Amino acid sequence: MTAAIEEPTLREPAPVGADADGAAIELAACEATWATELSAAEAWDADEALRVAEEQAAEGVDEEFEDYSPKDWQRFYMGYHQRFVDDCVLELRGGALQVRLAQAPSASVAVKHAAKGAGAGGGGGGRAGGGPSAAAAGQGRGGKGGKGGGGGKAQQQQQQDLDKASDPALTGTTVWDGAVVLAHFLTETPVLAAPPPPPPPAPAPCPAAGDLNGDGSSGSAAAGPARALWPCSGAALPSVLELGAGTGGVSLALAATRTAASVTVTDLPDLLPTLRLNAGRNAALLPPGRLHVAPLKWGPEGEADVQALGPVPPPYDVIVGSDLIYYSYTPDTPHTELLLWTLRRLAAPATRVYLSLSLHHNPEEVEHFLGWAAKDFHVLRLRRSVPEDFRVADSLVVRLTPRRAQLVARRQQVERERLLQAREQERREREAREASAG
């Protein structure tokens, strides 16, 4: 996989005389400050690597599952109507809270349902956690790690090609197992109950470097006691962004259970009608102003979407996503690369990323993704932390924490470029004034 964006090559301007000395001194002072900051970030990363190694040892991810048979809530083993026509009901808090999600066989069909103001199927749908399940009609598991459903590899590949050609957002209008697992994990465990450790204190910014967050974007995080409040939102509860939300199950679960201070739920424009439909259908469960729907395309082409995110803008305390890895990486299907670009773009130093990744569709690509992500994030694979009823071999839950040295280095590159550009602009303006006066 190639990098989404190449780091710019900087060419220092060539000031003259006293101005040259002043610019050189200023740049040298900034470089010294940046070196101190980068060293502190590298030390934090070393400590974080040790913490993650200890956590990883406690998760028992290498242990065999005692039972590989499908759970009654698993969507993958249900029939067509339960997966693409009937509503899916997420039963949270032991069934005391029910989030009802409309489904459809494709985004184009979902748009028609949304226009009518009705769900894809209506009453009765299959439940996902906490209550009686619908029967897993017509789909069995082919042994440990096997895939359900019929058809050979050639037939499945042909259908996948047709899906990509006719509806790129096909996979986003049904509830997948990863969404069920992640919704219960985030709302039934204490992972969002307290903020992460604070980052090392940063030196004062250099002149003309701008006010930048750890991801290189402009703006500033709210202040507050780091150990009591989440660093980005400055609140007792985290600000959350969901990527590739599809039907919106994870975001709606977070908002309905009051687990997050704000939830920004995003996906491609074709899927926004489904998200808005499901948000409306569950409005009685949602605190006013807590859920926000927005378009977000992954990769550099989505930069305008990033800039427009609101009313709660980046950075976010927590980024979540489920079943985001589907196609193998190729130049025609660069989804994995674009996802990584977006995570790097949106992650601030204290951001935590929680992903639930399906191992049904493309386990090899999941491993590729995690290997690539490890260059920019500390990767923790979770098992024992996942609620037992939703701990299955088919869904891998991971936590990503940014490697702060990488974030700091990228931000410093932006600051360095801005400083050099500002000094070059000052030099040109001065020369223009001197030429005019002469």
Summary, kept brief:
The protein has a domain at 64-112 and 171-196 and 231-402: Vaccinia Virus protein VP39 (Rossmann fold, 3-Layer(aba) Sandwich).
Notes on the protein architecture:
The chain is built from 11 helices and 10 strands. The strands form 2 sheets. A 7-stranded mixed sheet has the order 6-5-4-7-8-10-9, sandwiched between helices. Strands 2-1-3 form a 3-stranded mixed sheet, covered by helices on one side. It has helices at residues 17-59, 80-84, 107-116, 153-166, 177-188, 249-256, 272-281, 303-308, 335-346, 363-373, 404-437, and strands spanning 88-92, 97-101, 126-128, 239-242, 262-267, 291-295, 318-322, 352-358, 377-382, 395-402. Helix content is 38%, strand content 12%. It starts with 16 loop residues before the first helix and ends with a helix. The chain has a domain at 64-112 and 171-196 and 231-402: Rossmann fold, CATH 3.40.50.150.
Give the SSE layout:
Blueprint: H1 17-59, H2 80-84, E1 88-92, E2 97-101, H3 107-116, E3 126-128, H4 153-166, H5 177-188, E4 239-242, H6 249-256, E5 262-267, H7 272-281, E6 291-295, H8 303-308, E7 318-322, H9 335-346, E8 352-358, H10 363-373, E9 377-382, E10 395-402, H11 404-437
Parallel strand pairs: 1-3, 4-5, 4-7, 5-6, 7-8
Antiparallel strand pairs: 1-2, 8-10, 9-10
Region (Disordered): 116-170, 192-224
Biased composition (Low complexity): 207-224
Biased composition (Gly residues): 118-132, 139-153
**How confident is the prediction overall: mean pLDDT?**
82
Oligomer: single chain
Strands ordered across the widest β-sheet:
6-5-4-7-8-10-9
Task: Give the low-pLDDT segments.
Answer: 2-16, 131-151, 162-169, 208-226
How many DSSP H or I helices? 11
Binned, the helix content reads 25-40%
The tally of beta strands, per DSSP, is: 10
The biggest sheet amounts to: 7 strands, mixed
Q: How are helices and strands ordered from N to C?
A: HHEEHEHHEHEHEHEHEHEEH
The CATH C-level class name of the domain at 64-112 and 171-196 and 231-402: Alpha Beta
- What is the assigned CATH homologous superfamily of the domain at 64-112 and 171-196 and 231-402? Vaccinia Virus protein VP39
Q: What is the CA-based Rg, rounded? A: 24 Å
Distance between the termini: 56 Å
Outline = globular
CATH topology of the domain at 64-112 and 171-196 and 231-402: Rossmann fold
